[in-house]
Amino acid sequence: MPLAFVKENSTVKIVEVRGGLGLTRRLAELGLNPGSLARIVRVSPPGPMLIEVEHPPNSGNPSFGRFPSWRIAIGFGVAMKIFVQNLGVNV
Amino acid sequence: MSSGTVLALRRFKVAVAGNPNVGKSVIFNELTGGRAWVGNWPGVTVEKKVGRLKIGEHIFEVVDLPGIYSLTAYSVDELIARNFIVEEKPDIVVDIVNAANIERNLYLTISLLEMGVKVVVALNMVDLAREQGYEIDEKKLSEMLGVPVIPTIATTGYGIERLKEALVKVSEEKEGYRKLVNYGGEVEKEISKISRRIVEGDPKLSDKYNSRWLAVKLLEKDADVEGKIRLSPIGETLLSYVSEAREKLEKILGKDLEEYMVEQRYSYISKLIEECVKILEVKPVTLTDMVDYVVTHKIFGIPLMFTALYLAFKFAFDVAAPLCDIIDWFFGSFLYSLVLSFPLAGWVSSLLADGVVAGVGSIIVFLPNIVFIFIFIALLEDIGYMSRAAFVIDKIMRRLFLTGKSLLPLILGIGCNIPGVIACRTIEDENDRKVTGLVAPLISCSARLPVYLVVAGALFAGSQAGIVWSMYIMGFAFAFLMAGVFRKTLFKAPSGSFIMELPPYMAPLARNVLIKTWERTKRFLFKAGTVIFAVSVLVWILSVTGPGGYLTPATFEDATLLEQSWIGVLGHSLEKLFAPMGWDWRISAALFFGFLAKEVVVSTMAILYGVGEEALVGPLASTFTPLTAYAFMAFVLLYVPCLATLAIVRGELGGKYAVFTLIYEILLAYFVALTIIGVGRLLGLG
After folding, report:
1. In terms of pTM, does the model score above 0.90?
2. Domain A3-89 adopts which CATH fold?
3. What pLDDT, on the 0 to 100 scale, is given for residue A65?
4. Could you tell me how far CA B459 lies from the centroid of its own chain?
């Protein structure tokens, strides 16, 4: 499903970015690649969403979730182009 | 070399690079002792910050680059940074890595190393990393990357000396390309093939750029590198070879080649992390969480933003008020009488007292207000609030086909429109950048403030703060409105993408805030000393002379005599234009000179009414009604950007846009002032 439809506090896994080369690159630089995990901190449709990227992609790092994460604001339009797998709400 | 010198001085070009919000400017200030000068970026008529560091016989010319995430450029800002590193070839790049966010920051480090540039890594905010529960083995990291890694805490100056030593050491080393990321058998084979073709086919090119880097970038479809290759004699053949190779590799890998290469870099970074980072304990970060919960709230976010700005301004004015009074007394009474007491020829003492002291003094009076506004803007920037403001406003901006990113240049414009227009470079989308640049001069800057304060002080005693605040709101409202109009007409295109990092909240650093404030205040003082000084003298000359010849300084005492001066003639001819608004010839003349710098509106009025800033209250109260005064303030807010801002618009967007800005703003201001008068009269006001 598109990231734009995910609820607050859910954790998602990025599956695919359906955007141009530029968008894909920029997201990759901010650590959002297919495979990376993110927690949705704040949504305000049709406004932007605030997400927390949780660990470097493809690392298979067992310490997932332990490293400090970073926060990114993503516009609604961009969030519609990022397809994710919803891993459910963290408690 | 010259034989006379004992020490052979050796010069090196050093660039300070890093992601946004890693403490880059603090380290730059530490390295250069906070003394920077402003130069021009090659090829662009805009400013760069350069400082100097001297260690023994080594002289490092240090350049502060805009924040970048990688060497791929999206915005003008990033293009400047990239071009500097790629084309200007600094001898050393100091790469500031945020230790508290090391995985992502290392991406730029890897990109720099792949380019073959000499790098010194400053591992900044190591204290914060430890606070968050982990430790970085910098020796191991240095070993693996093959470059010095110096832990630093920019805010305390920790590690800066070691960083300087590392610069000296690295400046002595030969450059060496280090192959860090292995892209795997098939890809590596193609990289070597392409690289060999470049070396053999165009040695000039491979002398200038690292050939492996060129090959990697070609496979990644880097538009800029493709452009360079196209100019080479081997260009077309090589490019078609590369695209065939790419196709072949994508078939083998079963995925997009560029995506694959980015992944390989990240998995190399993961390896670095695994080897070099030790987790001590897990500590959740809570402060940023809590604050973000409040400031990005769906309903309260936007009101909170305006309340915060309002309180900041209110505080700035309240604190500044007594200081302004002291300066006003100094210029208006002390200096004015002092100048008149000197035994000088009548016209000289009039020029000094009625021209220079009254004119320049009426502006300097507002220095405390302006300084406090600059301090607050710097504080908001350093705390990390600005990007949150962009986040909450994005929802509104979206309706105007803009993104939250356009807010930052507008907020900076409150201090001065010039940095506001320049900050538009951080906007990636070309249409968004241009539209924001066009409307940024509508934001109420500190130069308009003296006009509001004087006029509101004369006509709205008791409610000045609210009236002045409404001007700021009006500035933003028209900036948004015009942006929406331009975006839907002249710059019709789908809206750009909004992606922005929100840095963790940080305690502001006094030194950093003060340096920023000083740099911006300096510009204001410079303007007071040059433009405003010159215009004050000009207005004085045009006041004491007229079509009939020299009128003597008695004009300042005698209103009918003053009307016969050049300025009287000019004012009277413009008066007709402003007749519907009910503004007299003095005000018309003041508006004319206000084009040079908006503060000049006040200084010109002060000269024409033959009084200091404080004494303007009387004459203005009888000239204006509250309604015409309010329309006047709105007109001053909107009518033309000052000359300096117009020059910057020309530099950033082009001459065509500067002319357009000039024309649309005059029309807009006239229309708005007329509307205010019309609506006001309908409502029975004034």
Report:
1. no
2. SH3 type barrels. (2.30.30)
3. 47
4. 35
